[in-house]
Amino acid sequence: MNRIGSAQKVALICAVGVIINVIGARIAQNFNMPLFLDTYGTIFIAALGGYVPGIAVGFFTNLLGAVFNESEMYFGIVNILVAIATTFFCQRGYYETFPKVLITIPVIVLMTSFLGSVIEEFVYSSTHFETLEKFLGHFQENFSGEFRDKGLAILVTFFLLKKFPSDFNKDFLLLGKMQAPLSDEMRNELENNDRFIQSPKNKFISSLRTKMIFNLIAITLLVAVSITAISYLIYKESEINDRIRIADGVSSMIVSEINPRSVEEYLERGHHVESYNEVESKLRKIRASNSDIKFLYVYKIMKDGCHVVFDLDTPDTPAAMPDDVLNFEEAFIPYVPDLLAGRPIPPIISDDEYGYLLTIYKPVYNSVGECTCYVGVDFSMDSISDYGRTFIAKVISLFSGVVIFIFVLGLMFVENNIILPVNTMAYCARNFAYDSEEARGHNIERIKSLEIKTNDEIENLYSAFVKTTSDSMNYFENFQRAKIQVAVMDELAHKDALTGIKNKTAYNKDTAKLEADIEAGCAEFCIIMIDINYLKKVNDTYGHERGNEYLINACTLACSVFGEGNVYRVGGDEFVVVLDGDKVSSCEENVARIRAEIERFRADDSLEAWEKVSAAIGVAYYDSTIDKTTDDVFKRADAQMYQNKLAMKAIRTT
Fold first, then answer.
1. Rg (CA), the chain
2. What is the model's pTM?
């Protein structure tokens, strides 16, 4: 059967699974059966066809079931997790024997009972997890029902699978595949090589599959979190705006009860004024009319603080007396200038020792437009937080199944259209044999047998891979030989044959970079000139072999002090050291070190003549005011070296 025919057959079988679930759930509800009957098709299809078909059946079951019962859309994640767990156990052989399949029942029942209880608690309960005992009772009730339902579904699936032909699920194996079936050898190696692959440069690097899975997970989680966060923010903003409108209406009602002309008298005499008690009674009725009003008060704002006009007590907070002065709360500090000027201020949301509150301050004006006091209403925002948790729970329950389903579809697409074709091409390339013409021909045929047909760039890559592999056999060896020869020649051209360090050609090449820095005005370097003493004497006395050894000892000393990468042999007995950038600061110290070593050699009578390295040293730092080129610095270093050589000669003759 071709791939299109297999896909149609799989789609039909999955549709039957969805229908079985939906009809089973309706029958169980209509006849009040002690079973749910909504996962029989999911479990069977997952055991038969694997993750994608099983998850598809679970997803569309609850999507279609929501048409008849809206609450079922929140439980889509449960049906999908049942498919995932069933596939997991089935692929590990738990459905092969009766004792093993019994082990899966309590695991799946525990999962569905717990998750179902959590969803019900968050979505349908106004008080989430009020007591652990209550939740455990709910969980126990769900467990008994789930055990009957899922246990029977798993056993029915187990016996049905025994009746189906062993090759019945071949169509499921071809689902989404864009190439010919793999050989057993190739399949086994790819499965064992699922997470990491070997690389010539790194012992292990992440496989393409691992990276794609991580990317899919990251993208899926980002989308899920973004949808949840945006939905919650829209919900919260809507709730806060509604609360602000209600609070504004309440504060306007209170403003209408306050006589601006009586504010000063209320401050002075408080409860001794008959109208004060009448207004306070009305304020209490207004507060009692809305359970979300936590604090209600009237303040006159002055520079020294809030002078209390009215303040209603609460069970937890006693009321302040008239003309008591309260400090400005931290959330109101930015608005003090507006309050003192009698201007309106925006609603304030705060979360402090008094709780999570929405505060509305509304000014009370007298007949000439002067602000005599402010009405303050603090609305509790705790209910928004509680409703918000329920809202998030509903969004998560609703979208988690969708997210998993989309993730699985994306993973299947990536696996069949990118990962599997690339991995099979990599397998063929990695196992390509160059031993003989026959072996190379066999490998080319193995690559062609993949028959990758994704109808996109991957197929183009595969075609190019086949052509390139075939063509490359004609000139690959010659290319490798030429590449090696070029590398060897380049290395020889820049290395001193005797000492193995960089030679004058390399010095000229590297100083050309310093010339560019001088042109750019960013040069910072120094040059140390080292001229070896007594080379001719060692050659004449002990022979050129000892003279070469003397030079090598001198080179070793210079490299140990300045670093091999900074030392050049530019003449028979001349070495140059170039330090740039941060290394310039260590120049003086290193020169002192090498001079100390030379002095130590001179004083050590146990050393042979060719071991007593002696050299004159000159140092010059680049100075932009006098140096135009690196050669200017070199000449100054050479001149100082010459002065040092004369000084050393003078010491020897005294």
1. 43
2. 0.54
